[in-house]
Design brief:
The protein is of the alpha/beta class and 340 residues long. The chain folds into 2 domains: 222 residues, P-loop containing nucleotide triphosphate hydrolases (Rossmann fold, 3-Layer(aba) Sandwich); 105 residues, Helicase, Ruva Protein, domain 3, CATH 1.10.8. Helix content is 46%, strand content 16%. It contains 15 helices and 11 strands. The protein has a 5-stranded parallel sheet with strand order 2-5-8-1-9. Strands 3-4 form a two-stranded antiparallel ribbon. Strands 6-7 form a two-stranded antiparallel ribbon. Strand 6 and strand 7 form a beta hairpin. The longest helix is centred in the first third of the chain and has 23 residues. The radius of gyration is 21 Å and the shape is globular. It starts with a helix and ends with a helix.
Length: 340
């Protein structure tokens, strides 16, 4: 075993340790926790979608504690403007106006997780700023450029309340590695614990059960690069991955049909080249966490529903039914395209 292999093995142990601890804090969300660990090592931003009160904030706080670095959160509101993320003004004790750095800037390059709560309540101007931060991990302010090399952006979208909301544009959605739904736990024991166990009633104390700095955020970019290089794929597997993505552009060419849908009229654009690479990045991390050095079809299948459907764009009338249309298309693609 080489020194690099030993280092990867140690990082895998740390990743699984963090996963185990977060699962003890956020009960009934094992798959969600695994997907977030995958996103951390794939170095991709994540859009969470779920009802109010299912534990999204506590989940991200627990994850941020395990990664280390600075954590910031902002609430999306209709009156939020881009400058509110960059700086804020106030009158100091001596009566003079002051300007301080806002939530994106104040931690500098130590910012590791930025949580945008209810991003669909913010205006398109704010989405535009976040698009640059996500794409370039930098922002210009105060006549200089601030860089955030370790930053991951997590956002959630309130799917219950639709008043005074602004849908996230396709360009911004495509920047998210994953879109992960978070539902109320279906397990009765988990529901009972969340309702009656006082341990879960105090989120501030609960997240302290996760060891601080299990993963050192300063080295995650480097480790992620080594993971991608260490997991190999066969030619047959590569063709399979390509077909999974090509089918989002022309389903009929792959024998995919759903009653009531003419995909030539429904689909405006299939998964982008960025999305195609993100699918493979996430699948390689999944394989690595399962202690394999070769990519398997199930690795792609296990992350497909979170990495691809939100990158397929439909004509406006079908966008109103996006969740149902995208799910039906994705399920057909996974079931009809033969794995090697």
């Amino acid at each position: 075993m080489t020194s690099q292999d030993m280092q990867l093995e140690e990082w895998r142990r740390r990743a699984l340790r963090l996963e185990s601890q977060v699962k003890q804090v956020i009960v009934g969300q094992d798959r969600v926790v695994r997907l977030l660990i995958i996103a951390v090592f794939a170095r991709g931003h994540v859009l969470l979608e779920g009802d109010v009160g299912v534990g999204k904030t506590t989940l991200l706080r627990a994850l941020a504690r395990g990664i280390g670095g600075a954590y910031e959160r902002i609430e999306g509101t209709i009156d939020l403007m881009p400058n509110d993320l960059i700086y804020y003004t106030y009158v100091s004790e001596d009566g003079k106006p002051r300007i301080d750095r806002g939530p994106i800037l104040k931690h500098g390059d130590a910012l590791s997780i930025f949580f945008f709560n209810e991003i669909n309540r913010a205006r398109p101007q704010v989405h535009s700023l976040m698009l640059r931060v996500m794409a370039e991990r930098s922002v210009a302010a105060f006549d200089r450029e601030f860089r955030f090399p370790h930053l991951l952006v997590f956002a959630d979208r309130n799917r219950v309340e639709k008043d005074e909301t602004f849908e996230i544009p396709p360009a911004a959605r495509d920047r998210f590695l994953m879109e992960i739904p978070i539902e109320m736990p279906s397990d009765l024991a988990a529901q009972h614990a969340l309702m009656f166990d006082p341990r879960f009633h105090d989120p501030d104390n609960l997240i302290t059960e996760v060891d601080a700095g299990v993963l050192d955020y300063r080295y995650l970019n480097e480790v992620a690069t080594v993971v991608q290089r260490s997991v190999q794929s066969t030619q047959a597997l590569q063709r399979y991955a390509l077909d999974l993505c090509r089918a989002t552009h022309d389903p009929a060419n792959f024998g995919i049909a759903i009653d009531g849908f003419d995909f030539e009229k429904v689909i405006q654009a299939g998964v982008s080249p960025r999305g195609m690479s993100m699918l493979v990045r996430a699948a390689k991390v999944a394989a690595w966490l399962d202690e394999r050095e070769t990519l398997l079809p199930e690795d792609l299948q296990n992350v497909y529903l979170e990495t691809v459907p939100h990158r397929v764009f439909f004509t406006p009338v079908y966008e109103l039914r996006r969740s149902r249309v995208a799910a039906a298309l994705s399920e057909q693609i996974l079931s009809r395209i033969a794995a090697p």
